[in-house]
Amino acid sequence: MTTPICLVGIGKIAVDQHVPAINASPDWILAATVSRSGTVDGVPAFDDFERMLAARADIPVVSLCLPPVPRFDYAAKAIAAGQHVMLEKPPGATLAEVQTLHAMAQAAGVTLFATWHSRMAKGVAPAKAWLADKTITGGHINWKEDVRRWHPGQDWVFAPGGMGVFDPGSNALSIMTEIMPLPVHLTGATLQFPSNRDTPIAAQLQWTGNFTGDFDWRQEGPQSWDIRVETTAGTLTLHDGGARLLIDGVEQDAGPDREYPALYDRMAELIKTGASDVDLAPMIHVADAMTLGKRITVDPFEF
Ligand code: NAP
User: Fold this and answer.
1) Distance, CA 66 to ligand 1 centroid (Å)?
2) Are residues 75 and 125 located together in one domain of the fold?
3) Which of 69, 103, 106, 205 is packed most tightly, with the most Cβ within 10 A?
4) Is 195 touching ligand 1 by the criterion CB < 6 Å?
5) Are residues 160 and 54 both part of a single domain?
6) Active-site residues: which are they?
7) pLDDT tens per residue, range 95-140
8) What's the pTM value of the predicted model, to 2 decimals?
9) Are residues 126 and 235 in the same domain?
């Protein structure tokens, strides 16, 4: 049986990932979109969220693909209307607003799913299983990509609440917080802010347990989405954002890659079981980096 779902914010990630994942799923039917300018061929389109809520009481689920800052108001209205809600990552602009949404969802008896798509990358679950009984001696995150390629013209990433390099960096942090058998906490950070922007374009982080991270949004050419975890029993590395897993340099067969389809499978399961999934651990590291970070001003950035 298919459940009608409404996709809100028809921008880059909705078109690249959400629409294909919903269309390929036996669980969902894309019943409406809400966007001020984007539409999806053949799907009823609204340009106002409240009008959609009033007109389409037959749709019990919304998936919010907006940037983090506007997302809270949409989620709050959806929960108040009795809808189950899926949040793109990072789940909000602040930790407290996501906690508020979680409390609202619990009170309303609806599902709230704060998604972390990188946790669904195919190497992540086997990495977690391999590390579960290991003693960790250190590790490193190397997360460097080209903001012009992945966020073309998206000024919101450099506005307050846009999180800058921690927008993609939270993908690495979502993997780290998923696979590590014991938590680490941040001990220091250096944040590089373009002189004309409000969020960092690069960051170097240090955690307990000899763990470090290097995040940069200025990398042209090959992109780097790598995590290395050293243990007393060998070294585990994840590459390509978690899609490839190697143990002591030997490639592991990690199964099919289906990040966004797996998110929609999980949403169907959460609704079926009456549960929510709201893990703020990756965002806590971002907030801690902003709290502890030494600020350095670097060259201005323009798209
Ligand atoms: P985007 O294309 O800039 O924005 C998505 C849509 O949100 C826009 O098309 C816009 O639709 C709507 N929107 C933007 N600002 C708004 C506002 N202030 N109020 C209401 N609606 C607004 O962004 P995106 O790249 O898809 O990213 C959206 C989310 O997905 C972010 O949290 C991002 O971290 C996450 N994500 C992005 C990527 C990626 O590669 N880009 C990958 C994974 C996850 P209308 O103007 O038509 O209303």
Assistant:
1) 4
2) no
3) 205
4) no
5) no
6) 89
7) 999 999 999 999 999 999 999 999 999 999 999 999 999 999 999 9
8) 0.97
9) yes
